[in-house]
Amino acid sequence: MKRWNGWGDESVEFALNGDALAFLAQRVGAGTPVADAGFAQACAQLGVSRLPPHRLIEVSPEVRLRNALGQSLPDWLRLRYGVIGTAPDGVAYPESAQDVRDLLDYAQQYRVAVIPQGGGTSVAGHLTAPGGSQPVLAVNMTRMRQLQYLDTESQLATFGAGVLGPDLEAQLRARGYTLGHFPQSFEYSTLGGWVATRSSGQQSLRYGRIEQMFRGGSVETPSGTLHLPTFPASAAGTDLRELVLGSEGRLGILTEATVRVTPMPEYEAFHAVFFPNWAAAETAVRQIVQAGLSLSMLRLSNSLETVTMLALAGHRKLIGLLERYLSLRGCGDGKCMLMVGVSGRRALARAALREALVLAQPHGGVHVGRFMGEKWKQNRFRNVYLRNAAWSHGYAIDTVETAVDWPRVEIMMRSVEAAAAAALKSHGEQVHAYTHLSHLYAQGASVYSTFVYRLAGDYETDLARWKSLKKAVSMSIVGNGGTISHQHGVGLDHAPYLAAEKGRLGMSVMRSLFEHVDPQQIMNPGKLLS
Amino acid sequence: MKRWNGWGDESVEFALNGDALAFLAQRVGAGTPVADAGFAQACAQLGVSRLPPHRLIEVSPEVRLRNALGQSLPDWLRLRYGVIGTAPDGVAYPESAQDVRDLLDYAQQYRVAVIPQGGGTSVAGHLTAPGGSQPVLAVNMTRMRQLQYLDTESQLATFGAGVLGPDLEAQLRARGYTLGHFPQSFEYSTLGGWVATRSSGQQSLRYGRIEQMFRGGSVETPSGTLHLPTFPASAAGTDLRELVLGSEGRLGILTEATVRVTPMPEYEAFHAVFFPNWAAAETAVRQIVQAGLSLSMLRLSNSLETVTMLALAGHRKLIGLLERYLSLRGCGDGKCMLMVGVSGRRALARAALREALVLAQPHGGVHVGRFMGEKWKQNRFRNVYLRNAAWSHGYAIDTVETAVDWPRVEIMMRSVEAAAAAALKSHGEQVHAYTHLSHLYAQGASVYSTFVYRLAGDYETDLARWKSLKKAVSMSIVGNGGTISHQHGVGLDHAPYLAAEKGRLGMSVMRSLFEHVDPQQIMNPGKLLS
């Protein structure tokens, strides 16, 4: 069963061994485990539902609590400490577009706030129920999950928008196809959620972002249904798909989505390449991505992330051997690990990998083969379970991400890490901050930073630590000309920083768009635009 | 000097030889040349300017006439027959964003309609002045043409948005870069126009559509300035660039644009491959484009376009030899010509071409080398001059284009050609209609049809013929589920068909967006949304 107060399935544990704990203790001090609130105790906090009855709506506290929050650190703090705060008054599980239509009509009639959701994996506060007197309905889309149509000639697949990642891939794989969208939240996130938040997967270099995959569909809005037909391309005015992408539930609910699929790749491999330092590594990956090779992934860890990954990898002896070898080849302290993925026809994939290695070589790149890459692949959706394990030892893990053009990539990385350190220092704490470039483009890169720091053990202090950290890193992102999100979306947590990139007129254009389609402003109020 | 009543420079002629004229006469009957109206005679039709004076505005009839119309067939009929109808009351040539700002403030103050324009190449009526009592100002952006900044690290170039294609490429070439956007209108179209109409160039397979190239910029609107910062990618809500793309002057005026550029390719070649028939050719190109090879162009002519291109090519003896060779190899009557372009690093480009030829072979593809391809490349921007030559012999040439998913490509092609034939038959005339797929995608293709038919010799009859043709082919496009434009935009001529793909709600969303930014509705009124 899915954890109600943490990541993923209850049966899956990602334990931290003694070496790993020693490493963390050395970096930020020893953690003190915190006692979690119980499920029943948390449920008891929910008030009586204020919703008028509806055939599709469940109002039990258990269901409401399980659909109350996402995976942001403030969400975790509420759940772990049992300080639930607001929660939806009920949860609906529609099974058809007509069900969704009925629910929106009901919501308009009774002026109910509607929070569309998929697998509840938001890390930006998209799912938080607003306070105030308005009743709140969560619409959980995960029962709308079927592959409705596969057009192999046009390589298009139409799904119910609530389909979860593994289910979607399984339905396609049975027919020899893949979507290829693998965000770290893959196991619990949905197609509709990916579209609504402009998600990006680990192999976007081959498969594109969800923006490129999303070819059409159907959206139920308070003002009616928006049908988005599929065209290979169009010059006919505004591309309405772009208004749905990134709308974060403010416009309506995506009920079905048509996405671009491709035949399962014949061959897939992940290789690791080490570089002696950041400057060499960054120059190399820029040249590789600008060469336009047919790679499926480039993921560059900075030196501290490299150290961390090696420390947490287990296999102490093997890693020791690897490090001695790398040191002999010029990659000692300060080394940075690049993961290179290739997928597709065997000959072409191997040729692309060879070209990438040729470009890496003059920058001191040392190819160590597939071992680390396959290890990374095995753990690609397991790493996120680390958050549960760290918490149980008294550590919080949080992440932020942005994207900037190449001249600002390194400055951004250094500034975000320094801002996090300063913020926690003001609380008398240390942070272990490390960064990777998760998505590479000819124009620039996403900059993805992880922060590990100690829990204080009470809700207010831990919320205050997080608030300081979040504000500091967000100001740093904005101050260095980055977007407030490359792949997680805006939600509640990033909303205060959005105007910095959209400007006054851009903000008012977005607001007017949502008000036009949703004149009562019932759709996910307070998210994206605060 | 640029022709005032036809395409391109007065010094460039594309003559039709006797063979070509015999071919046309055989297809649709002998044409009768029509006498053109004179420039002075046309100028004399313009009334007195109704604009209040402004330092940036010129009001001479000569300047107004030269900025009055585009290149659609109705535009030509007005100019050739001297039936000018509406025209702007004045033309401004701003040289800075501040000039544009001043002009929009002036326009709002005096409630003047504003028609932004670049090189005046619209084939959809984007530039036509509305009738009625409101004075009309054309804002010609071509003096804002400088490369302002080239960021080689991020491969981004910022230009004044009025820069013409050849000027833009020359400024980049001097620094070793190219944009790679080559619509057939390249010589006279501008960067801003490409963005405003969602243009696509001949080598979009390598370089992308303008949507992919356009990374940011600045737009002056009646409600202020919209700054679009550059990010490699973003998940921060609505992508505001998408509201500018395809806005056709309704939102404001793009003053500068930052575009993605790449180093000049080391190698470039165009090769021709013939197929025995349409079915084989279509299957082959679908497989080639879905293989994701690094090609720069795929352009497939149907059999009648192939016949036409060979008939108009001159070189009768050489073409005769080619046809005998093709016939021996199984490509006789009904053969279809595919043009394959490759650009980039020599080894990779050649490998991609080889792969494409391997995929073509099982479908009867016969590779005839570079001769026809290089010929096509030489004439890529000259073919459009054929329209002047045909007119001088009494023939009209018009085109329409759409895009559809693969299952509908052939149906669309046949329907559009049949609709054109039926429409002109109702006027007792024949049409020579032929089609190519100009842009290929994994999902489908653009379908681009050309129509040659006889001029009647008077404005009303020729306008009636065109109206019948345009309505019939547009209805056919919409009826077969195509977009009303893949690359030309909507303007006046396609506006009646837009609702078929956008739907009621989509249309109202677009309208509300433009009304929000331009409350007085002074920006290019009547275009895109009629």
Automatic annotation (TrEMBL), chains A, B:
MF (Gene Ontology): alkylglycerone-phosphate synthase activity; FAD binding
Residues at the active site: Y448 (proton donor/acceptor)
Biological-process GO terms, alphabetical: lipid biosynthetic process
PROSITE patterns: FAD_PCMH
Keywords: FAD, Flavoprotein
Ranges for domain FAD-binding PCMH-type: 84-264
Sites annotated Important for enzyme activity: R299
Family: Belongs to the FAD-binding oxidoreductase/transferase type 4 family.
Protein name stated in the entry: FAD-binding protein
Source organism: Duganella guangzhouensis
